């Protein structure tokens, strides 16, 4: 199958491109240039692609041409400005990329006869956070206070409206939360900061040590995206789907930092840098993923300790000189063997 991944140069997009290419699919990508030192560069993902297109998704006519010329069977839309803090610094680019960019993708794929399905990736932050302790389900109200969350909620509503009004290409919306895994170099992500400090033998400053966060391995999140893509290609799966981590993965930042330092060894350490004056951060919001479990047969494969161990293992091996592509493909194979029926092994 020929699959187009937008955001293929990013963290999730690089893992996804490697999964798909390793399973024999033709993969094309549309994104901005990769960040230096990330998985895309280290694993030389570009050399596995049919088309490696560098294009701003805000460029409507350019995108329409590129998506038309690519002519993929399946489109997985991940490209976004995905950082909350950056969304305060540059709200206009965040809204334009996440909302207009998604509209441009939806409209462009309508004109491609080959395209049989599309998955639009949003986030757990699309839900209006009313402080409930139970997980949010797909029918709960959407909202968003910070510009990132609001832009993603807008993209989510836009996708619902578009696919309801113009039901051409069967489309799903995939909502997942914080993910971890090797090769991430984005700003403001705890594991990225921890590993960077541990590797440099520097104490890592932690701003919110007592904040509780869900942690999911990137492979479990991507297996959700591919499971729903498989359903779309088989005639079901439209609408919104949560692919969240299991309750065992809710840990404080302090617990992650302690466990990470212990696993890393070599005197790895962190320091409490909480101060009291911070940008507004939403209270913990969790996803209820029972719909995906019940209707798609999706489940998480890696429990929380394994997600952390695999992430640190990847970083240690690659920083010691191991081949990043080989390490990544090795983890993909291990994951596939563990996941069995409940992963992309089913359809892809
Ligand atoms: N990483 C997480 O914890 C997380 C959590 C929830 C949702 N998500 C969502 O998953 C998707 C992928 O996130 P990621 O973690 O891989 O982020 P990332 O920052 O690593 O990758 C973002 C990708 O989008 C591309 N991009 C950004 N602006 C673009 C533009 N204007 N035109 C074309 N391409 C553009 C980048 O080039 C890159 O390839 C995003 O939609 C994000 O909102 C991520």
Task: Considering the chains and any ligands shown, give keywords for the structure.
Rossmann fold, 348 residues, alpha/beta, 13 strands, two-stranded parallel ribbon, seven-stranded parallel beta sheet, globular, binds nicotinamide-adenine-dinucleotide
Describe the fold and architecture.
With 348 residues, this protein is α/β, with parallel strands linked by helices. It has twelve helices and 13 strands. It has a seven-stranded parallel sheet, with helices on both faces. A two-stranded parallel sheet has the order 7-10. Strands 8-13 form a two-stranded parallel sheet. Bound molecules: nicotinamide-adenine-dinucleotide. Nicotinamide-adenine-dinucleotide is lined by residues 7, 9-13, 31-32, 56-58, 78-82, 97, 101, 121, 123, 176-179, 186.
Which shape, going by the Cα principal axes? globular
Which residue ranges are poorly predicted, with pLDDT under 50 across at least 5 consecutive positions? none
The CATH topology is Rossmann fold
In round numbers, the mean pLDDT is 93
Q: What is the CATH top level name? A: Alpha Beta
Percent of residues in helices? 40-55%
Strand order of the largest sheet: 3-2-1-4-5-6-11
CATH architectural name: 3-Layer(aba) Sandwich
Q: Helical element count?
A: 12
> Secondary-structure element sequence?
EHEHEHEHHEHEEHEEEHEEHEHHH
Distance between the termini: 9 Å
């Amino acid at each position: 199958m020929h699959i187009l991944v937008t955001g293929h140069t990013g963290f999730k997009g690089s893992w996804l491109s490697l999964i798909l290419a390793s399973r024999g699919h033709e993969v094309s990508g549309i994104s901005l240039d990769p960040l230096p030192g990330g998985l895309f560069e280290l694993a030389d993902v570009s050399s596995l692609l049919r088309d490696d297109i560098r294009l701003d998704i805000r460029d409507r006519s350019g995108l329409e041409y590129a998506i038309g010329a690519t002519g993929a069977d399946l489109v997985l839309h991940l490209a976004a400005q995905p950082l909350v803090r950056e969304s305060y610094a540059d709200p206009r680019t965040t809204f334009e990329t996440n909302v207009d960019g998604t509209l441009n993708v939806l409209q462009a794929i309508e004109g491609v006869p080959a395209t049989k399905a599309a998955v639009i990736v949003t986030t757990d932050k699309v839900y209006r956070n009313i402080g409930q302790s139970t997980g949010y389900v797909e029918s709960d109200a959407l909202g968003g206070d910070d510009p990132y969350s609001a832009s993603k909620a807008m993209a989510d509503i836009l996708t619902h409206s578009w696919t309801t009004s113009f039901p051409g290409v069967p489309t799903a919306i995939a909502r997942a939360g914080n993910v971890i895994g090797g090769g991430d170099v984005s700003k403001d992500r705890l594991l990225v900061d921890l590993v960077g400090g541990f590797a440099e033998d520097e104490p890592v400053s932690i701003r919110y040590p007592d904040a509780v966060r869900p942690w999911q391995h990137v492979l479990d999140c991507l297996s959700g995206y591919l499971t729903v893509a498989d359903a779309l290609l088989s005639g079901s799966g439209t609408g919104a789907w949560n692919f969240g981590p299991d309750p065992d993965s809710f840990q404080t930042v302090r617990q992650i930092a302690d466990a990470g330092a212990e696993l890393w060894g070599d005197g790895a350490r962190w320091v409490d840098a909480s101060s009291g004056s911070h940008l507004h951060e939403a209270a913990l919001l969790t996803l209820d993923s029972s719909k995906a479990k019940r209707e798609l047969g999706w489940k998480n494969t890696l429990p929380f300790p394994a997600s952390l161990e695999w992430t640190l293992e990847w970083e240690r091996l690659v920083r010691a000189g191991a081949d990043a592509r080989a390490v990544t493909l090795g983890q993909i194979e291990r994951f596939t063997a563990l996941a069995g029926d409940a992963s992309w092994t089913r359809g892809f």
